[in-house]
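Run log // design_07
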């Protein structure tokens, strides 16, 4: 029943692309995909959620920053290094504004960048 809403929306769908209920549905789907280790599906869902979060909360939201960090981390685990670097850079930019440079989340992002550099070699 939820499957049609777990992919990019088209104009023929009755639910608007950035509807708040879709955000809840997609968050739940991400959790389910992560718990079942379906990383590719979790990443795709995170990308869809990313667009909705930007729409509702703006470019500098703590929620957006943590989701970008999560997508980057999942991409890092899958060794998709270029994509991971893109998302981690976005997360760093958002979290620096929302949490400050010395926050624990910023330290986690920095650790992910160190791991990224190790994996690149």
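design_07 sequence
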């Amino acid at each position: 029943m939820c499957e049609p809403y777990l992919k990019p929306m088209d104009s023929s769908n009755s639910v608007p692309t950035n509807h708040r209920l879709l955000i809840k549905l997609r968050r739940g789907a991400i959790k389910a995909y992560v718990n079942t280790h379906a990383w590719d599906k979790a990443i795709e869902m995170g990308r869809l959620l990313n667009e909705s979060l930007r729409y509702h909360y703006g470019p500098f939201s703590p929620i957006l920053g943590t989701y970008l960090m999560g997508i980057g981390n999942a991409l890092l685990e899958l060794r998709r290094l270029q994509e991971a670097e893109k998302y981690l850079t976005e997360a760093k930019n958002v979290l620096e504004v929302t949490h400050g440079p010395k926050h624990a989340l910023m330290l986690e992002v920095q650790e992910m960048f160190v791991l990224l550099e190790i994996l690149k070699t």
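The helical segments are 20-35, 39-57, 62-77, 81-98, 104-120.
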